[in-house]
Amino acid sequence: MAPNTSLVTTVQVRNLVRRYDERAVLDGLDLDIAPGEFVALLGKSGSGKSTLLRALAGLDPDVDGSGEVAVPANVSVVFQDSRLLPWARVLDNVVLGLSGAEERGRRSLDEVGLAGREKAWPNELSGGEQQRVALARSLVREPELLLADEPFGALDALTRLKMHALLRQLCAAHQPAVLLVTHDVDEAIVLADRVIVLDAGRIVTSEIIDLSAPRSAADPGFAAIRARLLDALGVLV
Ligand SMILES: Nc1ncnc2c1ncn2[C@@H]1O[C@H](COP(=O)(O)OP(=O)(O)OP(=O)(O)O)[C@@H](O)[C@H]1O
């Protein structure tokens, strides 16, 4: 999906600082995400990816007040585990808190390939299906910004590939801006318009991915991008 090149940004972060004790985990971080732009965030373990996501989601009241974090009011978050409520049926999980949204909820479940499973309980679904419900629950709210913290990290390789295709399709249809945290360099290249790398609390690399869709690791150009990103991550190639 091509990013909207409008001057208005969906996310604008300036000089974001987050300290734990005296240590700056986010150290004066700047980030812009355009409307409809899909940004993947890579970084070594402990580099601050989840901390950044939590700050953008408004889930961290302790970020340093001197910086700026501007995000839209309508933000949805998807995590590695689906966080479905076990006592609520699938459709109720999707529309929880949205009055009169049953029909929209059904359409969302249809979009993620779960038509007919509205009345199932979460524990009757596979891990991949539960993540589909989590995506439906996010997208039924038509977020301007979708934050995703390793949403496919717990899934097997085949299910992951199917989820990549689904997410691309959903993003093309709904056009949210997306920030996806992942450890998987190939996943980042396959999905994103732009891949950024976080190191020592700052963004050290920003790589526009201009490969045409559908993308695969066999594409000419893919290996060169992967090598640059692995280099930025400090991995020898
Ligand atoms: N509540 C906390 N108290 C103290 N330190 C914390 C807390 N939460 C996170 N940290 C520290 O902040 C740093 C960044 O953590 P964060 O979870 O953002 O990293 P990450 O890049 O998402 O890592 P991973 O890839 O392993 O999930 C880590 O060194 C972590 O120990």
What does this structure look like?
The chain is of the alpha/beta class and 237 residues long. The protein folds into 2 domains: 1-74 and 145-237, Rossmann fold, CATH 3.40.50.300; 78-142, no CATH class. It is 31% helix and 24% strand. The chain is built from 7 helices and 9 strands; from the N terminus they run E-E-E-H-E-E-H-H-H-E-H-E-H-E-E-H. It has helices at residues 49-56, 90-95, 102-111, 127-139, 157-174, 185-191, 222-232, and strands at residues 11-20, 23-33, 38-43, 68-70, 75-78, 145-149, 177-181, 194-199, 202-208. A 6-stranded mixed beta sheet has the order 5-6-7-3-8-9, with helices on both faces. Helix 3 packs across helix 4 and helix 4 (127-139) runs parallel beside helix 5. It is globular, with a radius of gyration of 18 Å. It starts with 10 loop residues before the first strand and ends in a 5-residue tail after the last helix. Mean pLDDT is 93; it is low at 1-6. The site of adenosine-5'-triphosphate (ATP) has 10 residues, from helix 1. Adenosine-5'-triphosphate (ATP) binds next to helix 1. Pfam families: ABC_tran (PF00005). One of its GO terms (molecular function) is ATP binding. This is ABC transporter ATP-binding protein. Residues 11-225 form the ABC transporter domain. Keywords: ATP-binding, Cell membrane, Membrane, Nucleotide-binding, Translocase, Transport.
